[in-house]
Amino acid sequence: MTVNVTIDDYDYYLPENLIAFYPKRERTDSRLLISNRDFMEKAGNQDQIFLEDKFINLPAHLKKGDLLIFNDSKVINARLNCFKTTGGKVELLFLREEKQRHYNSSRYLASVLIKSNRKLSKKTHLKIGTTGFSLTVEKESFNQKGKYVVSSEKPILKLFQEFGEIPLPPYIKRRVELSDIKRYQTVYSKALGSVAAPTAGLHFDEKLLQRLKEAGVETAFVTLHVGEGTFKPIKTKLISEHVMHDENYEIPPSAAQKIAEAKRKKNKIIAVGTTSLRAVESAAKRSFNENNSTILQSGSGSTNLFIKPGFAFRVFDGLITNFHLPRSTLLVLVSAFTGEPLCTQIYEEAIKKEFRFFSYGDAMLIFRPPGSY
After folding, report:
1. Domains and CATH numbers, the chain
2. H/E stretch holding 114
3. Which residues pair with 269 in a beta bridge?
């Protein structure tokens, strides 16, 4: 039950020197904090709860037949600088394309977040530098400050891709550099649509993926386009009152088949990132609710699933993820997955051992405790 759980329960102090402002030289150079699999599976018969290693050694901590589920969404050049006709600078963050029929418009439409010194009025024109292209403000959100619908004669996603830049998180207080164009994407990304990277996947390179294959570890790919639902902070006092925004996902038949096979063989299924987990658990919940079936159905949909303590996990046994911001839905998800006090112990251990935090930081490999299935 989460009725009386407050967001203050998901706060912690992080020294600024533990925030990773740049990635490691090699993707697999990141450190890996592991909740000892033998300890978890044997319900405490080992002395050591946590293990430490380099991410490059991930295959040593998995077993033949384990199934890793990746999110193959690709990050949009979602940040775009524009100018008002008065010369004032504004910054736009792309959220999603909108359907023209919903706004009775013949122009292309998109929802965006806009940073501006003052509120923008309807029909404000925003020039994209000296490109000759512009966007027009059509509508402001009633329930979210700084959120607008804008229009253009040209597809807006294409404008962002052509003239925008990679949307590094706001806590990385520096300009986008050439290396970010490559390093803020996973090596297997292909489905354009995210406004933030599925960061657990940033630790994998082609060589590591090949070594996992040689070790008999299975892989499958799903898509969840990371949007506001993932990165919007929790601002309500009670976490039960927080509402997630919809994000689109797709479960290919090949992924559903591999999940069913792993379940049949009782092999562990491990999510590479919270977005992979949310996509698959959303689909599993949908299959159960609509068909009363425990068999995951392939297909696409949208989800506003907020995973919090008490959630009934139907698919995953393990999770690879980065260390997340305090007071975030991602931290709440990790707590729901591991249970307390293990989540708190993980973060205390990471801070004590000076792991690097957030998008370009280190990672953890955690398994659900015995008795939680």
Report:
1. 7-75+181-367 (3.40.1780.10), 79-163 (2.40.10)
2. strand 108-115
3. 67
